[in-house]
Amino acid sequence: MVHFRCCSGGLRPPNFILQQFPAVSDRRYSKPTHYRKLTVLEKAMQTETMEKELNELVDRLKSAAGSNLSSMVLYGSAAEGEFHPQHSDLNILCLLARMEAADLVRLAAPTRWWMKKGHPAPHLLTLEELRRSADVFTIELLDIQAGHRMLFGTDPFPALTVPMTLHRHQVERELRQNLIRLRESYVGAAGDAKAVLGLMTGSISTFATLFRHALIALGEKPAKSRIGITQQLSSLLEFDPAAFVTILSVREGKIRGREVTVEAVFGNYLEAITRATEEIDRRFQ
């Protein structure tokens, strides 16, 4: 779940998380708040490294699990061609036939190897658990369904049905919960420009994801970019998207954090999220 911790360098941004599939929006908050653009050569080298590690993980898990491993799915930014090693994870979902303790022990060695590479542990489900989770993790599974890549086995997502009535409830709940977390975290960070900037860059992917799903719940087709999504929702709900554009530009390395008037931008950021949350709550009643 969500943990709020302080460290010696100041406030550690909270783990804004969409429940059990935290990498739907690629939330790695301990990284720096400014990301430089990669050169074409750097991107090519990192793609090669990523593919090599993914292939080795597949081989290791297949060897360890044998016939118990039904499918392996890559999801998140890496599956959608938007992977950036400074703020993205390689997110893996493994579907197993059995999930008894002995079956899990067999996965320990390849999982430890993968985590030592700096990646989160794969999520482990049975196919039946995946189907039964569709009414609980509507946002997460809709995102994986829309953008994933099969690494091994049969693709289970074309046949997965996500109940959209429950999707609306999750969008409303997650917006409200993350707004509360944002406020509480700001109380501990206020006055520390670096910490406040980190709070915004650390939470913006979550809110961008929720804004996209708010558009889906409202019957709209979301824009492709996060800035486009924010501008689209701001037109519908009448809030100022400028703070989101600024923080997304920092995350993408287009502007430097020191160029941002942090407290003023945070005020606008909080106001935009509050307005969106209240309006979604009103419209979904």
Q: What do you see in this structure?
A:
With 285 residues, the chain is an alpha+beta fold. It has helices at 40-65, 101-105, 108-116, 127-133, 138-146, 164-189, 193-217, 226-237, 242-251, 262-283, and strands spanning 5-7, 10-12, 69-75, 91-96, 123-126, 148-153. It folds into two domains: 40-153, Beta Polymerase, domain 2 (2-Layer Sandwich); 164-283. The protein is 53% helix and 10% strand. A four-stranded mixed β-sheet has the order 5-4-3-6. The model is unreliable at 1-20 and 22-33 (pLDDT under 50).
Query: Radius of gyration, rounded?
Result: 19 Å
Distance between the termini: 27 Å
Given the structure, what is the number of helices?
A: 10
Structural class: alpha+beta
Strands of the largest sheet, in order across it?
5-4-3-6
Poorly predicted runs are: 1-20, 22-33
> What string gives the helices and strands in order?
EEHEEHHEHHEHHHHH
Morphology call: globular
Short account of what is shown:
Helices cover 53% and strands 10% of the residues.
List the helices and strands and how they pair.
Elements: E1 5-7, E2 10-12, H1 40-65, E3 69-75, E4 91-96, H2 101-105, H3 108-116, E5 123-126, H4 127-133, H5 138-146, E6 148-153, H6 164-189, H7 193-217, H8 226-237, H9 242-251, H10 262-283
Parallel strand pairs: 4-5
Antiparallel strand pairs: 1-2, 3-4, 3-6
Helix pairs in contact: 1-3, 6-7, 6-10, 7-8, 7-9, 7-10, 9-10
